[in-house]
Design a protein that fits this description.
alpha/beta, about 170 residues, 5 helices, globular, Rossmann fold, 6-stranded parallel beta sheet
């Protein structure tokens, strides 16, 4: 994990992707990144995807599947700790493709930061990365949401604020 942290810090510094928030109405490609926790979170994410698709957005999802967690429905692309090399490199074609996609918005839907997901945020080509406010994680996002409630509450707040961008 130490090598992963070093790689993440380095990626944050080196990533020269264009960062800017596009008006929500003009956004086309949306990414969603989250860590599998329970069936409720899975349902909340699926509901969010449905909302975005109703708004005419093309949505890609990547989930981090921790050991001993169930992958509900096998609906989304995923990566695991087994995709992390000793040197802190994530060797997953799904994760690599996700990281290189220039999303208009990338929503990170975890209440607690996950070091593997943060690495993907650091290497991401997304224009606007949106996540929950966490002390000292400002460099991972263009938009942070201060929200301490449920996952659904976090998603609803992210959606509400993003839709207001003009």
């Amino acid at each position: 994990m130490n090598f992963l942290r070093m790689r993440t810090r380095s990626a944050l510094k080196k990533n020269q992707s264009l960062r800017a928030s596009l008006p929500y109405s003009q956004a086309r490609n949306i990414g969603i990144l989250f860590t599998v926790e329970d069936k409720q979170k899975h349902a909340d994410v699926k509901e969010f995807i449905h909302l975005l698709e109703q708004d005419g957005k093309k949505v890609q999802v990547l989930e981090y599947l921790p050991l001993k967690k169930e992958n509900y429905e096998f609906k989304f692309d995923f990566f695991t700790i087994n995709d992390l090399s000793f040197w802190g490199k994530i060797n997953s074609a799904h994760a690599q493709k996700f990281s290189e996609t220039p999303f208009d918005y990338l929503f990170y839907i975890d209440k607690q930061p996950n070091p593997l997901a943060q690495y993907l945020l650091a290497t991401s080509k997304a224009r606007c990365r949106v996540g929950r406010f966490t002390e000292n994680d400002e460099s991972f996002y263009e938009m942070m949401i201060g929200q301490n409630g449920t996952t659904k509450g976090l998603i609803d707040t992210m959606y509400q604020y993003t839709k207001q961008l003009r």
